[in-house]
Design brief:
single chain; about 160 residues; alpha+beta; 2 domains; 5 helices; elongated; disordered N terminus
Length: about 160
């Protein structure tokens, strides 16, 4: 595919001219970037550029008001602890974490720690209700058996209305 449109802001390494023309584009790096062959409109020098999506770093706003970098491994390690002995694998936990990351990106890149916990609970409830109750007991801070009973009733009666 050839694009003959003039592109600005990519300076020619030969003469420094800012007007270049894309003469060929193709996928690169397992389709995570685009390789472009360019030609300088000033000196006809040909060179290659790579275009990649710049992902904004994800941030989590803690209850204390401090923003920290999003760490998928924290989700995975929390799930490993809560789901010990359940028929779930590390791959399942990594899938949950990846789903939370994807959702966080669609939220704009900064989410609250409460949002993260609710997103994990929502996905875990669909995979394993017992693991969900274990994780919820820590996340929601269950104080007594009544808290477990209430949550279990909500799941049993209608999984859609369980307050995540």
């Amino acid at each position: 595919m050839t694009d003959t449109a003039s592109v600005g802001m990519v300076r020619c390494p030969g003469c420094g001219e800012s007007e270049t023309k894309v003469i060929d584009s193709r996928s690169a790096d397992e389709e995570t970037s685009v390789r472009r062959r360019r030609s300088c409109l000033g000196c006809d020098y040909r060179f290659t550029t790579f275009e990649r999506v710049e992902e904004l770093p994800l941030r989590v706003m803690k209850r204390s008001g401090v923003a920290v970098a999003f760490d998928e491994e924290k989700i995975v390690s929390g799930l490993v602890a809560a789901c010990k002995g359940r028929p779930l694998t590390r791959s399942d936990f990594e899938d949950i974490a990846a789903g939370v990351v994807e959702s966080a990106r669609s939220e704009g890149g900064e989410v609250s720690s409460e949002w993260v916990g609710l997103a994990v609970l929502e996905q875990l409830r669909e995979m394993d209700p017992v693991a969900y109750l274990r994780f919820a007991s820590v996340y929601k801070g269950f104080d007594n058996v009544a808290d477990f009973e209430r949550e279990a009733r909500l799941i049993k009666v209608d999984p859609e209305i369980a307050e995540v």
